[in-house]
Amino acid sequence: MYWTQRLRGAGTAVAAAALIGGALAAPTAEAAGAPHGGQLTDLVNPFIGTENEGNTYPGAAVPFGMVQLSPDTGHNTGYDHAQNEIRGFSSVHISGVGCGLGGDLPTLPTTGDVTETDYAKYAAKFSHDTEKVSPGYYKVGLDSGITAELTATKRTGVQRYTFPATDKANVLLNAGQSLHKTVSTSVEVLDSRTIRTTITGSGFCQDTKPYTLYTVTHFDRPFTTSGTWKDGTVTQGSRKSTGTGGNGAWVRFDTSKDRTVEATTAISYVDATGAARNLRAEGGKSFDRVHRAAQASWEDRLDDVQAQGGSDTQRRTFYSSLYRSFLAPNIGSDTDGRYTGWDQKIHRAKGFDYYQNWSLWDTYRTQTQLLSLLAPREERNMAISVLKIDEQSGWLPKWGYGTVETNIMTGDPVTPFLTNAYRQGLLKGYEEQAYRALKKNADGTPPADSPAVGREANVQYLKDGFAPYIKDRPHVKPGDSDFDHGASATLEYALSDAMLGQMAGDLGHQADAKRYAARAQSYRNIFDPSTGFFRARDENGNFTGPADPAQGEGFHEGTAWQYQWMVPQDLSGMVGLIGGKDAANKRLDSFFAYDQLLADPAKTATDVWVNGPYDYYNADKYNPQNEPDLIAPYTYLSTGQPWKTTDVVHAALTLFTDTPTGMTGNDDLGTMSAWNVLSSIGVFPVQPGTDTWGLSTPAFQRVDLKLDRRYYPHGGFTVKAPGASDTDRYIQSAAVDGTAHAKTYLTTDEIRSGRTLSFNVGAKPSDWGTDASAAPPAVR
What we know:
Layout: H1 12-17, H2 29-32, E1 70-72, E2 85-86, E3 88-90, E4 107-111, E5 124-125, E6 132-134, E7 137-141, E8 147-152, E9 156-162, E10 169-174, E11 181-191, E12 194-202, E13 211-219, E14 225-230, E15 233-236, E16 240-243, E17 247-253, E18 260-268, H3 272-282, H4 287-302, E19 305-308, H5 312-325, E20 330-331, E21 338-340, E22 346-348, E23 355-356, E24 358-359, H6 360-363, H7 367-374, H8 376-393, E25 399-401, E26 404-405, H9 414-423, H10 431-443, H11 458-464, H12 486-506, H13 510-519, E27 527-528, E28 533-534, H14 560-563, H15 571-577, H16 581-591, H17 594-599, H18 601-609, H19 642-653, H20 671-681, E29 683-684, E30 692-695, E31 702-706, E32 716-720, E33 730-736, E34 739-740, E35 745-747, H21 748-753, E36 756-762
Parallel strand pairs: 32-36
Antiparallel strand pairs: 1-3, 2-5, 4-10, 6-7, 7-8, 8-9, 9-18, 10-17, 11-12, 11-16, 12-13, 13-18, 14-15, 14-17, 19-31, 20-23, 21-22, 24-25, 25-26, 27-28, 29-30, 30-35, 31-32, 33-34, 33-36
Helix pairs in contact: 5-20, 7-8, 9-10, 9-12, 10-12, 12-13, 18-19
């Protein structure tokens, strides 16, 4: 199936209405039977999230590919479904980010004379009715009469343009404009079929250290003439333009008889030789052949998860989310194994594939764990790649783009990322190297000459037990500052300390384990007994900012209400601070507007919880579209009311629909998509950085996972919930391979040793999972 725009105008609220009463809508006759009989790629709609700041892209990519060839319409992150002009089809996009990033080398077909060089001026109008998309493929008809098609390999993007009959069919290659700041560029016409560019760019939310991308574009037939431009000056016959400012090239074909032009663009973060080698290794194939291979690569990925039951909309949103979960991180090494390290030197990956693009503050909570389950070989290579960053630059990353650190977001997200890999058994042979890197990161602060900020407030945190909130403190380095968000940084540091302490104990570093376990209790140091909530402290240790937890300062993208449950390492301790389970449940019910939720789940999700994609502050309710609250619904597993987790999770699932507005907030490299996938399966990582998976009623009656036998000996794991529906959604009992399972969680070892997790469900809550011993244990 190709997705066209027949759903144009169907917003989140309309689509959610189909799921009124909860995510477990009654299954259709087709959905209730065997798994989807056609291609699973038919269920994927790449337009989901392209409107209302989901910031996804609809263009062509393969799983974890270096190239993401997609249209840019003028939105700061690339494509916005609400816009109707295309500035170009550019080679690099990062799915779901909140700031402009990528958009390198926008390429656009035109006809007539080349007079404009600003892509905002020469942009092509189009109708959404002409768009067709599927995994690895994008097609659009431009108002100019040109049809553009895109597909991709790992390191190349392939374009096919069908022009009207004309002797002035052009392709514009704009090296000097992108979605971020372009520092300098060069463009060269190498011969009558080949264009080479070098693009140095900077900036992600703020200015960062520059990175350089090398591209080479080869056409399937000679062009009749060509030229370059610099800023607004177009020069026919010119073969090179370079330096600061706007540099670009144009090539022309005679399509009076042969109306089709194909072009393959290869990229490299190493050098021009790398781009040329990537072109030789992955280019030279017809558009249709590349398209078929891209679709097959996606079918192979999606086929690892077979979901039965649920509504048609659920299945489409589920597989679309699964698709987006495999878009990043991205391969960073060329076909010869070379890559540019964070020391800006060229290295060669030996025995692993090098990956890049690390939105760790987002992905450590959901997407990392999903990849550990479904793509463990790639996740191992990703973890090794992060260790190479430390080895080559001196410090572990926080938010890395390409070959540079951006320092976006706060805390210490790399620790749960790596400890998760360790706990899932993906760091064999690298355990001590990883521990040394994490220990240095946890106990120190990068020096002034390092681009990294690391745990920026670590000196104060280690001395006083909290990261201070210092309002309007000048930033020492580009990016975010932990001092701007001292309260949430303290919670993040403490969470990471808990996970590192567990790893230290496993490896026999007992003194360190004890020290980190003590530091994991630092969350208590910002608890204000007078308000009953976490609260920022200033440099002198005084609580600061408004006492109202919905108005307080010092929390990154959230409030004290939303951060109060972000103590997954010790929820029982947190519950004790606020007065015990009864008090905690009362507060949770208020936080989730639970009474309203029971009456109308979808309306509560859209009207009470969601206040806008970037409306993070001044709220006392659950924010399902941002990272600090991703684990919050599972808090009920620790307060003796696990059935409420199912109620909240399934209400939140209604926010995911199969329309362009069907993404709840920025997807952040698959973070929100992975939340949807894991919550729909009913197995969720409630303690990021460990091997603990919380349980809730799945959104499907059966989900079969095909797992890598190198890491999961049985080669698969099945979750069953026969008869699950909107009315019968509460767990009455659970069993693993037929043996009763009273706990509200599983460990990775239990998933490895088991074959089937079965839920018996009913219409009313039961006492399953209510015993104190059933809750996920504190991390010690």
